[in-house]
Design brief:
Layout lengths: L2 E7 L6 H14 L3 E5 L9 H10 L4 E4 L13 H13 L6 E5 H6 L1 H8 L7 E8 L7 H9 L4 E9 L4 H12 L4 E6 L4 H5 L8 E5 L10 E2 H7 L10 E7 L7 H12 L3 E7 L4 H14 L4 E6 L4 H10 L3 E2 L1 H6 L4 E4 L5 E4 L2 H8 L8 E5 L3 H12 L3 E5 L3 H11 L4 E3 L10 E4 L15 H4 L5 H5 L2 E4 L8 H8 L4 E2 L1 H17 L5 H8 L1
Parallel strand pairs: 1-2, 1-8, 2-3, 3-4, 4-5, 5-6, 6-7, 8-9, 10-11, 10-12, 13-15, 16-17, 16-19, 17-18, 19-20, 20-21
Antiparallel strand pairs: 12-14, 14-15
Helix pairs in contact: 3-5, 10-21, 14-15, 14-20
The chain binds NADP nicotinamide-adenine-dinucleotide phosphate.
Length: 514
């Protein structure tokens, strides 16, 4: 069984008590091991403080002094670590594991000699390497060199993921090393390596406590245990995830993982941040499919890759639903166990379903001409509405209208904005972290507020924050509003069913994200 170690910084002796308290809480919550990160505390003079940590540790512990070069705060040299080891041994402080960096180990006869003096004590050596910049060029040589160190009980390889593909290489490293090993990636792109570590045979994964992360990308214990269900994942667990950039605001991992648990679907849903560009998308999707055959069963695709998702599935000879083709974009890829792909766009029907008015024969103003706009327009046209498109960049609006190739879809005239039954905002104006978080799209596009007053409904696609400036404006005018959460839940529900074949627990989801 793969273990979970919570990692806790202790920089000063007066942090020992709160650190122990956090460790006890983590053990109550399900942690198996405690890593004491004593980079700043460790010194031959602070043995008593380290003794308290080790002796009072509520579970077996790892004592770690991480150097500045490898992402820690220890500014000494390997000989200082040797002195600390001697002082600990002489003080009878015997943690279950000591983490020593391979760089220090190979540079210092003294450090190796100090470790040799631990022979016979019930302590294992975790020999580690960390590259905070990215994958080291000589990773495979490092693996080989560390495997050759016979004194090591566990070998640990950590580097900053530059792409989601690095996670898959971490799994290769785990498979390559005989005996207990840890291979993890740092940063937002490294979360899959941390969540799937157990399914790939890792000795352990790390989690953070309320006292904060000790490495970028570390999940907190609650997220690891309850959102990602670390303990119940196995080699057979299906892997799904959201591809996009940025993903910080995405609620998809929250709802889909909760949904999988609630319907008993053996799957895990991961954030898969992928940088802009067709090549990045294609390389990631292909590598995931190759490296996780049978297990990779679905992708949710968001900004800026929805068009890429459609193109990818077409290129791979997969099936594309009519609405995805008409939208020119896919937000959902379903992958069967033979690797056959289906691309769909669940945004389009979600908007129609939640608009709250009879769409057939209605007149709708769509603000924006990006991916969400295309889905909205395609869905509305298919449902019999007449649609006018308003966008900041006229050429993009023109391209959208031409792509729809439908007389019911035209460019809107900002001087003639009367008579719309619905106004739908698909721009990212008002979005947290977006181009204009305080703005509202009516103003941004030079439109008149009265188009909101006349409408039966103002529909907001942006869901972070829940109450955007547009929502507040429409409410102040007394017009009924549908917020982005409704669209989010409706499109996610369809995705969930496409992947799992089950009904999504939408009411539970609503409570979860409220
Ligand atoms: P996109 O393809 O990048 O399109 C962005 C749109 O916003 C474009 O029309 C762009 O105009 C416009 N825009 C951006 N900044 C602007 C500004 N300062 N002033 C005026 N217009 C501006 O993005 P998308 O995929 O369509 O997503 C748009 C929004 O919908 C995002 O906030 C996204 O989170 C949300 N969304 C929500 C859901 C949901 O489930 N609720 C689903 C999908 C999308 P230009 O063409 O001139 O650049």
């Amino acid at each position: 069984m793969s273990l979970i170690a919570v990692s806790i910084f202790v920089a000063e002796p007066d942090q020992v008590d709160p650190a122990l308290e956090a460790a006890r809480a983590a053990v109550d919550a399900g942690a198996d091991l405690i890593e004491w990160r004593v980079d700043e505390l460790a010194d031959a003079d602070t043995v008593p403080a380290m003794a308290v940590l080790v002796d009072s540790s509520p579970r077996p512990c790892i004592l770690t002094v991480r150097s500045e070069d490898e992402g820690g705060a220890f500014d000494g040299d390997p000989e200082d670590v040797a002195d600390i080891l001697d002082a600990l041994r002489e003080g009878g402080v015997v943690p279950r594991y000591v983490d020593l960096e391979h760089g220090f180990w190979s540079d210092s006869d003294e450090l190796r000699a100090a470790w040799a003096r631990w022979d016979g004590l019930d302590t294992g050596l975790i020999l580690s390497m960390h590259d905070v910049e990215g994958r080291p060029d000589d990773l495979l040589q490092r693996v080989e060199a560390m495997v050759a160190v016979e004194e090591a009980s566990v070998r640990k390889f950590v580097w900053r993921a530059r792409s989601v593909r690095d996670n898959l290489e971490a799994f290769h490293v785990l498979h390559q090393v005989a005996g207990p090993a840890i291979a993890l990636c740092m940063g937002d792109m490294g979360i899959p390596s941390r969540v799937l570590a157990g399914t790939e045979g890792a000795f352990l994964t790390f989690a953070s406590t309320d006292l904060g992360v000790t490495a970028p990308g570390q999940c907190d214990l609650d997220t690891l245990l309850h959102r990602f269900r670390y303990r119940s994942l196995s080699e057979a667990t299906r892997v799904l995830g959201i591809i996009g950039m940025p993903l910080g605001h995405s609620l998809s991992p929250v709802v889909h993982n909760a949904g999988f648990e609630s319907v008993g679907y053996d799957g895990v849903f991961l954030p898969l941040p992928v940088a802009a560009g067709w090549e990045s998308f294609k390389a990631t999707a292909l590598t995931l499919m190759e490296e996780l055959p049978i297990r990779l069963r679905g992708l949710c695709v968001t900004l800026p890759h929805k068009e890429h998702a459609l193109r990818f599935v077409l290129e791979q000879g997969g099936e594309v639903t009519d609405i995805a083709r008409r939208s020119g974009a896919a937000n959902t890829i379903v992958i069967d166990k033979d690797g056959k792909l289906v691309a769909d766009n669940t945004d389009a029907p979600a908007i129609v379903e939640t608009l709250g008015i009879e769409t057939a024969g209605s007149r709708v103003a769509v603000l924006g001409a990006g991916g969400a706009a295309r889905a909205a327009v395609a869905g509305l046209l298919s449902a019999g509405a007449r649609v006018d498109v308003f966008n900041r960049s006229p050429e993009r609006a023109q391209a959208l209208v031409e792509a729809m190739d439908d007389p019911m879809c035209t460019i809107g005239d900002p001087d003639e904005v009367s008579g719309y039954d619905a106004v739908i905002n698909t721009t990212s104006v008002g979005m947290e972290g977006g181009p204009d978080p305080e703005g509202n799209p009516i103003e941004a596009l030079g439109l008149r507020t009265w188009m909101l007053e006349e409408a039966q409904v103002v529909y907001e696609c942006v869901y972070a924050p829940r109450r955007t400036p547009l929502v507040e404006l429409a409410e102040s005018l007394g017009t009924p509003v549908v917020t982005g959460e409704a669209m989010f839940l409706a499109q996610a529900r369809r995705q969930f069913t496409a992947w799992t074949g089950r009904e999504a627990p939408v009411d539970a989801w609503r409570q979860l994200i409220d």
